[in-house]
Amino acid sequence: MPHAEALYFTEDDDANRLLAASPLALLIGLALYQQVPIEKAFMGPRVLELRMGGTLDAGTIAATDPDKFEAVFKEKPAIHRFPGSMAKRVLGLCSYVTDEVGGDAEAVWLSADSAVEVVRNLKKLPGFGDYKATVGFTVLAKRFGVQPDGWKSELANFPTVADIDGPGQLSDFKARKKAWKEA
Known about the structure:
single chain; mainly alpha
């Protein structure tokens, strides 16, 4: 499968490489992508990785005591604007990945035979509705070459983070998205 070396959703090179290298990091970033700036949401997986001892593993996170995991999210600076509810969401996401796809986050899309099925699988994830599933699929299609049957019809018809294809484009993307929303 073609693979992006980095997703330029933050100003931090390590975070950007992690998003591209770890399917779980990408899903966690997408889960956190609400009511915070893009770079805050997608920096979350890197911060979480560092606070969890240098690894980002669905099984380890799923087995973490919920109160302790919430404390990890609330540690200063907080991983998200709403650290308590987002800690629960990420814990649920990691539990789903552990229980439903054997701990392999990439199986969420690799197990699907069609784009419709990939989007359906994404919608099963805690905190993923139509918008996040569409954005997630668009990132997978444009940045990772996940293009099963019917993929073009499942792409977002609005600006998404998948449109950021290199360093230094975050500000331009934010301006385009703002203009699109205003129109």
